[in-house]
Amino acid sequence: MNVPSIIQGGMGLGISSWRLARAVASQGQLGVVSGTAIDLILSRRLQAGDPGGHVRRALEAFPDPEIADRVRERYWIDGGKDPAVPYAAKPMVGEAPDRGLEELLVVANFVEVWLAKEGHRGSVGINYLHKIQAPMLPSLLGAMLAGVDVVLVGAGIPLEIAGILDRLAAWEPVEFGLHVSGASREHKLRFDPRALFPGDPPELVRPAFFPIVASVTLATMLVKKSRGRIDGLVVEDPTAGGHNAPPRGALKMDDAGEPVYGSRDEVDPSAIAALGLPFWLAGSKASAEGLRQAREVGASGVQVGTLFAFCEESGLRADLKREVVEAALRGEERVFRDPVASPTGFPFQVLSLPGTLSEAEVYDERHRRCDLGYLREAYERDDGSVAWRCPAEAPEDFARRGGCEEDAEGRKCLCNSLMANLGLGQVRKGDGEVRVEPPLLTCGKDLSGIRALASPGNPHYTAAEVLAFLLGEDPARVA
Ligand SMILES: Cc1cc2nc3c(=O)[nH]c(=O)nc-3n(C[C@H](O)[C@H](O)[C@H](O)COP(=O)(O)O)c2cc1C
Prior knowledge:
It contains 20 helices and 17 strands. By secondary structure, it is of the alpha/beta class.
């Protein structure tokens, strides 16, 4: 793989779609798909009829046709489901997924990477959040079956992933330590790839591994202690979109209620460079000047999210894209680093937009529940078994499962709202009404690139224009 100047950041859920990653990779930079909740996204794309037949085309290429057939038969609805009918549930990810869920996870990750790689020779990565542990092992296998070039993992301390990639490439069984709150013993997720492919399995190539870090301490620790090879680092600052690493030391808030970051959170690029690995800087770096400055301090380039999130090929609903671009053109965007919105407890950047969960009245009106479950935390019951709870579920349910009610305050259901961002939001029926889950947008603090690429008369821009803009070329030439 060539060392790219630009990594198009992994943006969950589904914002970094195969279309976006393909558009970037086919231009010679690193296109990244999001692997977060991709099993759910695939199940809903199939229920929506799979317009264009892309998912079914990728299923045809899956190495075990019986597994692919089972997934298609379970979820695909010819012509799409009735919009007033809720999407069928899929099993939630937990400590011991059943065979059907394992198959769905492997297939969904395969499909997303396969489509992103279709028709060009560029490199494609996949992004996972370390905090979402339960689906990780089958997901990695699925992405590797499609020949993923890079695995990028953020939101945690991914010490075990490099070794897992080595073992999966050799078709060996893998284990992944599961974080369980109040655990009296070690808990592990286990996965045997040969159980799914008992015959002669296809050959796998071990992808490169790029952890995403926010401090020199974490980068150094990973490089020293990772159980397997690290091939590069993405260094993200707290202006980046999505989740941010919490500030170091005691948590302080500014007058607006955002966590305050200080000098201890600043990363010295020369200390990262001294680790001897290629690295990319992320967070408000989306300009030719940002790329130049990154290179000047020894980085190979930059990872950019926000500017790609609102381009034509991203998975975001077209009407939401347009609203954000128009707000940015008016200079009216407001991005709040919310310390409590995410059930993970990490600060999460929330973009204010009417009709979305960022607004108090929309939030208050939504009935809290947990029916997708990716951000649940595992906890140990008195009998030593593992159970799951989410601080964004109904506070009484959370308390019943041993959660602290205070910890539930202000939490937002990212699973349901981020699915709504893609036009795949769950439909709820009640009181004679049909409602769709409200969206919730995230993005980074810097939207200036949007103002460079879009105009009131033309709010649309493409991934190729973003790349040209970042490389200091004329975006109009590729428009
Ligand atoms: C909509 C959105 C979703 C994101 N989701 C993820 C994610 O799932 N995993 C991750 O590691 N980073 C995520 N990020 C961070 C990006 O990958 C990237 O590092 C960041 O956006 C770079 O900063 P920028 O937004 O200022 O360009 C997300 C960013 C955005 C804008």
